[in-house]
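Students often ask what a holo structure prediction actually looks like on paper. The answer is less mysterious than it sounds. You provide the chain, you provide the ligand, and the output is a string of discrete structure tokens encoding the 3D arrangement of the protein together with biotin.
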Amino acid sequence: MLFQEWQNELKLWKDTTKSQLFSKNPIFLADVDSTNNYVKEHANLSHGTFVIAYQQKKGKGQKNRHWISNPGGLYLSIKLDLKFFSNFQPFWITATVAIGLCQALQELGLKPTIKWPNDILIQDKKVAGILTETIISNDNIITIIGLGCNISNSLEEICSVFPEVKSNITSLNQEIIQQKSNILSLLLEKILIFVEKIFTESFYDQISEIKEIWNNLCQISGKKIKIERIDSKEIIFGEVLNVTDSGSLKILKNNGLLEEFVSGDIKFVK
Ligand code: BTN
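The corresponding structure tokens follow.
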């Protein structure tokens, strides 16, 4: 995607958006190290600001990994001030963004699924991921929800840096049979409108609905998995009982003991 095309898509979004909150302070950047970092470094940005970049030089992924952010992808960070969600469970705020993206993908005729905690897959291949960062200061808690999605960006470029992901990643250009125009502005609008709807119409009235939609997209309860601990790399086998209210994975391990995982790389096993 050329820079000019990217600009046109954002202009289209701006001219047609129905968002009240997110239309106030959008920030469009041609080039940045990381949109999440940009939000962190500009502490004065208000609740509901979002930053979107044409490309990122140091895009950040989960577990300190690099998120290659070449032109043609969606690179978005949303700033939310958690004083608007007292008693929040951050996991479900992130989940709301994941659901917004999944609903947009469904509208494009795709069948996305969620891989715990925050990966979005199509046909078992990763198309998008979310990195949520929380900043706690004396009087406030800010959350930055960073979403990266492969649309028309070159997967070859990603695989030339990380050859091991070759069979595990995909992009919307590869998955959508009938090519559509303006995918970027469509995704942006769908995600932001869904997030806005949930967060402005009392998050807590809708949290059970969010959990239900998320569980349907994730379908992890009852599955046999192996999970790798992030630090020690130890691999544990077990069966998923459920995803808890705080978003942890509750597992009945093969040794008969229960354990809750807040993070980890999971794989399904037979
Ligand atoms: C993952 O590893 O799955 C999470 C990837 C998150 C990437 C997005 S792109 C926009 C935002 N800015 C970043 O530096 N990272 C997130």
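The chain has seven helices and twelve strands.
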